[in-house]
Amino acid sequence: MSRPHVTAVIQMRLSSSRFPAKGLRKLVGRPILWHIVHRLWKCKNVETVCVATSVEPSDDPLEELTKELGVTCVRGPLDNVLARFGMALDACGGDFVIRICGDCPLIDPGFIDKIIELMIETGAETDIDPGAVPCIHEGFDVVRASTLRRLVSERADDPIAREHVTGYFKEDPGFARSCLVPIPPEHIFEGARISVDTPADLEFLEVVYGEIGAEPGEIDVADVVTLLKSKPELMGINAHVRQKKAYDVPRTVVFRCDASPVLGYGHVKRCLALANVFRERFSWGVTFVANADAATLIEADGFRVVEPPASSTSGWHSDWLAGQKPDALVIDLRDVTSKGDVADWKAASGAIVVVLDDPSDRRLAADFAFYPPVPQVWEHSWEQASTQVYSGWQWIVLGNGRARASASAETRRPKLVVTMGGSDPFELTELALKALNPVAERFEIEVVIGPGNKHINAPVPFIHQHLPSGIPVVGADSLVPYFSAADMALCSFGVSAYEAVRHGCPPIVIALDDDALRSASVLAAEKVGVVLGLAGRVDEAAIRDAVLRMHDEPATRTAMSDRGKILFHGDGSKHVAEIVVSAVNRVDEGPQ
Hints:
Layout: E1 6-11, E2 26-27, E3 30-31, H1 32-40, E4 46-54, H2 60-69, E5 72-76, H3 81-92, E6 96-101, H4 109-122, E7 126-128, E8 140-144, H5 145-154, H6 159-164, H7 168-171, E9 178-180, H8 199-212, H9 221-230, E10 252-257, H10 266-282, E11 285-289, H11 292-300, E12 304-306, H12 314-324, E13 328-332, H13 339-349, E14 352-356, E15 368-371, E16 388-391, E17 415-419, H14 428-436, E18 444-449, H15 459-466, E19 471-474, H16 480-484, E20 488-492, H17 495-502, E21 507-511, H18 514-525, E22 530-534, H19 540-552, H20 554-567, H21 572-589
Parallel strand pairs: 1-4, 1-6, 4-5, 7-9, 10-11, 10-13, 11-12, 13-14, 14-15, 15-16, 17-18, 17-20, 18-19, 20-21, 21-22
Antiparallel strand pairs: 2-3, 6-8
Helix pairs in contact: 3-5, 10-21, 12-13, 14-19
């Protein structure tokens, strides 16, 4: 036959709940879609490039980008990918269609050309997975246009064909004649994830581009293989991300949490850590319902956020959840939401309900409740509740963050982190700075100023007024880098105190109320921290004495540090997610 007309169809939508708008996310400064289109034009056989997206308003930005890129855009049903491919073929024509997944920015032009040439030579209607040969390629296959039209005509109602298009050929291998494409030796490789399903995948590809030093869109797949063979540790960046299977049952989880300078951001950050486990390890879709103060933080982690109307009621939440029908609902609130509200949400959504470290009666309407090992848990009444309660170090959900290496303790002064929460209502930061001033030369001190602290707009003058040697830290996304590189911490009791323990940084804590004081007692009982007492009753002398004692007893610090790391065996987020995923799967399996 004469030179064939080949149409490349990129299936893409922006409403993914796992990583929303990933097709517009930037890789070395260019959107993922740009990378795919750029590489497709390098195929010598490609005549037309088309993006097949949905008619949903959320995909309007995608159509705008196709105009900038000069490629065709067709829009069809959100839940019928096969219909969109039929529309693309009607709009663009062609003898062959390359099906391209919209999350694969490293498609290889030369290999695509080889597939087309082999199909022409053999008369095959489609290519098949090489199976036993591990290769680095992901996200594309080729089908004759006539075969695709027959699939649209004869299998329009088949759920596999509608969602996975050419994936149907694996279910019904007799439908189309196929050919096995030999993998080039330089492309044989196993273990790398080069598709973009999560922020971790995007980070991995950014690092790969940086290591190779390639311009956007110009990276050679063979060079990627060579790099990863020489530096296999790079694959650790996203090795934990589970590849979603074509026939997985879609799962979703909704998180209901809020944040503000007064409430703090710790609850949102730990929900983000848990959400990342659902997304990366279990391939679940995630949506947050949260206020505007929390939204920026959540969206920065690549999650969808729905902001309740300012006048929203429990009824609004019930109606919204009824429309979403999530598999699980995680609640981490400190507001007036009641047990009855949660019961209504559960009834409306049909979801398994989880609460984190919740002392209110909301816990009685939940299916699962997770707590640190604090004494109050078992003092609560659990009568007439079917809630399954988990209390212990392994169930503490904490925020994420990258650890920092610390200089050798033999060559420096002990490092002390001072952090008193998001708003510091008792002005403990100032009290701590005054207490440390006479002994500051004995430490390296970092002072973390929370977003709600009244000195947030002028932190440096405030700190240096009381402690000239203090290093201010403003707007820290995570305390992990500071705790992981420090020898000790001085902080108000809360999520941050547990984070310090987890990262081997013994905390000296001040409790903001009686309930926090009782919870903090666990740190002293386990010998992983020091509890000074209640805010308002702790003075400069008590702070200074406690800090100096820990300074003068390095063996005690080391023992506390080692003990804390042992207590946090494993990741609390992973443990909690595993319980929830298992429960959802049991519900689907029904009575045994």
